Amino acid sequence: MAYVLEFVDKVDIGDQVFEDHGVKIIVDPKSLLYIDGTEMDFVKQGVNEGFEFKNPNAKAECGCGESFSI
Length: 70
Description:
This protein is mainly β. Helix content is about 10%, strand content about 40%. β1 and β2 form a beta hairpin. The longest helix is centred in the middle third of the chain and has 7 residues, at about 30-35.
């Protein structure tokens, strides 16, 4: 599985909308099963920056943090 971030034009029926500090995250119902409880943060380390995910459901993750297995 992989974390994919995309812009959304329309919220579909069943999508969950989460909002914090004015930022909305929309998750479809199928994906929510795999990422429920996940914390997401934007991290800057030196010249590198990007989103970091802490998924309590993941049994294994790749070294880059972009994919995981359940």
